[in-house]
Design goal:
alpha+beta, L-fuculose-1-phosphate Aldolase, 7 helices, 7 strands
């Protein structure tokens, strides 16, 4: 019973991937963490979204040991566990193969900030990791994918940049909750599509100027943020 809220939250977030058009077939997943209970819930691997229910979310402890559930957890579980350990303020992680964000990841390029839509959510270019090495693939592929991501964030604040492109693979996003992580995945896909269109119109365009980027990000997320209504 104590895990029911977490399982329901992660279930709804996984179904939202479908609602937002972020997944094809079973190519994507959401996880969530309850840090008080030291437990993670994640989508079961390869299960159709129409067949999901709160009851079949897989529960794991923070060492990856099964707590509850008969199905195999997402193949991305070790990656997401590493992000929860390295990024202590996040509560949810999303991985998809959404079309435009994945195209940037396959191009092995960071996603530049070309305008204020991007700047409202990501404080600078969305980084792209280095390509995973053969040694990393042989060692523990999913765990080393987490290493790729955390290495890319050595000089980047994960709270100001809730997204990454894993080179030759696809996007990961995170947030304070599973729902917030899905929201960032939606914004990332939208911005990646905008960038592709902008660059087709003007291939010489460069990133938005820093003062405009800072203004838009900080008015939403800074210490003196004033966008929206006070809670």
């Amino acid at each position: 019973m104590k895990f029911n809220r977490l399982k329901a939250e992660v279930f709804r977030a996984n179904r939202d991937l479908v609602r937002h058009g972020l997944v094809t077939l079973t190519w994507g997943n959401v996880s969530g963490i309850d840090r008080r209970l030291r437990c993670m819930a994640v989508k079961p691997s390869g299960v159709e979204y129409a067949d999901l229910a709160p009851s079949n979310m897989v529960l794991l402890d923070l060492d990856g040991a099964r707590v509850e559930g008969d199905l195999n957890p997402s193949s991305d579980t070790k990656t997401q566990l590493m992000l929860y350990k390295e990024f202590p303020e996040i509560g949810g992680v999303v991985h998809t193969h959404s079309l435009h964000a994945t195209a940037w990841a396959q191009a092995r390029l960071p996603l530049p900030c070309l305008g204020t839509t991007h700047a409202d959510y990501f404080h600078g270019p969305v980084p792209c990791t280095e390509v995973i090495t053969d040694a990393q693939i042989a060692l523990d592929y999913e765990e080393q994918t987490g290493v790729q991501i955390t290495t890319a964030f050595k000089r980047i604040d994960y709270r100001e940049m809730p997204a990454v492109l894993v080179a030759s693979h696809g996007p990961f996003t995170w947030g304070e909750s599973p729902a917030a992580a899905v929201y960032h995945a939606f914004i990332l896909e939208l911005v990646a599509r905008m960038n592709a269109i902008s660059l087709s119109v003007n291939p010489r365009i460069r990133g938005v100027k820093q003062t405009l980027l800072d203004k838009h990000f900080l008015r939403k997320h800074g210490k003196n943020a004033y966008y929206g209504q006070k809670k």
